[in-house]
Amino acid sequence: MMTEHPEEQVDMQETELPTEEAATEEPQLCAEDQLRLELHEANEAKLRALADFKNYQRRSIENEARAVESGMVRVVRSILPSVEQMNLAIAHGGDAAVVQGFQMALDELMKGLSECGVSTIAPETGDAFDPQMHEAMMRQEVEGVETDHVVSLMQTGFRLGDIVLQPAKVSVGG
Fold this sequence. Notes:
alpha+beta; Nucleotide Exchange Factor Grpe, Chain A, domain 2; elongated
């Protein structure tokens, strides 16, 4: 079947077919833009992955430090009653040689604990009472000591860095 207007068909064919020059430029620009977009997305994905990995490393280091600290706290807390027993043995021992032996053992134990970061809490008379570091065992009216200040130390406390393992037991001015 023939159409009535053959000239219109030719014109349509010419307008529908792009020129060779236009056909090669447009896809190249699109391809370049597409490649740039893909490169940009790949770079952003790489940066996100790198940031995620750095956060993972930081969290792993923090978790490891927390686990080590938690383990040290458990071990030291289990040792502290023995330290107090040694202090009592030294304070109430009758035989000088036995007392000296306990004192040597206690000194070595305290040296080892100190190397692990354990420090003592031993407030002096007149120091301000700190409920985070001290445990008030009783109140006493003592001349020269203000209210809510330490009157005397009853038992030394211990801490590991910022963690109070055992507060110092004190009497407080009232």
